[in-house]
Design brief:
mainly beta
């Protein structure tokens, strides 16, 4: 039985080797299939389809005595190497050998709400350099170690996980950014790549803060945290990021600066300013009580009226506009507290 073993050379070109089997699967011969000539005819490009199946499209004509099609499909499991290269571990399919690993060297050049873009540089048989991009479809999520991961979709609802095994941070626009350093293939010069995830923050649970990239899909980072700290102009959480090469999680601080307001048809909101001065509000339900020090004490709830174990004290001066009406209503009530948002309207 003939089996083909696939490799990728340093120039991101496909290399094929032939395995000839005799009796009970014992390999008696292992040879390169006309390697010198074959490399010439297999100048081409890799592509991925909507299910992230990899194929290699051959540009140069193939000789009649070489039994390789003009398009080679390669199926397997996707992952990301420590050097942020793409790796495909081949599965049992067609004539490809099970378990072979193909590594595409390149750079992650962009991240979108439901995709990741990977740039590949290659050379033709004439020595002409070119670059192209592979776009993978899927969704972004955080794993149990609070690392950023991309779930590359596959057929039948399955997925492969590409893990960014490094520290992510928050920039001045309250966006998540991920930086990694990598040497270029030819000059070996190290370059820092920065990926920016565009989204907004939300808080729904006691020990979790979420960064929503696309509300209409499952692209959301749900980070496990301790209890949050809520002040008059910021919200603060501490997150532990567990990396494979570190024995202990790395602490990361999420600090969101903004303004507190009360909206009659929403509840207590915290407005955060993002890129291009775009404002997005985190909405809470709250039980409010007056204190003796000209402040209002809030016990925060989510939009399902569930306690999130967070409290907040705000000065009367901060709660302007509808907040002033809320305070007047609070003073006029004989009961000790009134609710904003989730529990009932004020």
């Amino acid at each position: 039985m003939q089996k083909l073993r696939y490799e990728i050379d340093p120039h991101n070109r496909l290399v094929v080797k032939e395995i000839v089997e005799k009796k009970k699967g014992k390999i008696i011969q292992f040879r390169k299939t006309r390697l010198t000539y074959f490399r010439k005819v297999l100048d081409g490009r890799f592509k991925v389809d909507r299910n992230n199946i990899l194929s290699y499209h051959i540009k140069a004509p193939v000789s009649r005595d070489v039994t390789i099609p003009h398009q080679v499909k390669l199926r397997g499991k996707w992952s990301l190497t420590k050097n942020h290269d793409l790796r495909l571990t081949l599965g049992k399919w067609g004539r490809q050998t099970f378990g072979d690993q193909l590594t595409l060297q390149g750079d992650i050049i962009d991240v979108n709400k439901n995709s990741i873009l990977f740039a590949v540089t290659t050379w033709t048989k004439e020595g002409v350099q070119s670059m192209y991009a592979l776009k993978f479809q899927g969704s972004w999520q955080a794993d149990k170690n609070n690392r950023l991961t991309f779930r590359a979709k596959k057929e039948e609802g399955k997925h492969d996980i590409l893990t960014l095994n490094g520290i992510w941070k928050i920039n001045k626009n309250h966006q998540i950014i991920y930086r990694y350093q990598k040497a270029q293939l030819i000059r070996k010069l190290k370059k820092i790549h920065t990926l920016t995830f565009k989204g907004h923050w939300d808080i729904k649970d006691k020990t979790r803060i979420s960064y929503i990239i696309d509300r209409n899909t499952s692209s959301v980072f749900n980070f496990r945290t301790g209890l949050g700290l809520f002040k008059d102009n910021y919200i603060k959480y501490e997150v532990g990021i567990g990396l494979s090469q570190r024995p202990k999680p790395i602490k990361q601080t999420i600090k969101l600066f903004g303004k507190w307001k009360i909206k009659k048809n929403a509840g207590l909101i915290f407005e955060v300013e993002y890129e291009n001065k775009k404002v997005h509000a985190i909405v809470f339900g709250a039980e409010a009580r007056l204190t003796d020090k000209d402040t209002v004490s809030f016990k925060l709830r989510n939009d399902l009226n569930k306690d999130i174990s967070a409290s907040l004290k705000l000065s009367h001066k901060i709660l302007k506009g509808e907040g002033e009406a809320f305070i007047r209503g609070l003073k006029s009530k004989r009961e000790s507290a009134i609710f904003a948002g989730a529990a009932r309207r004020w």
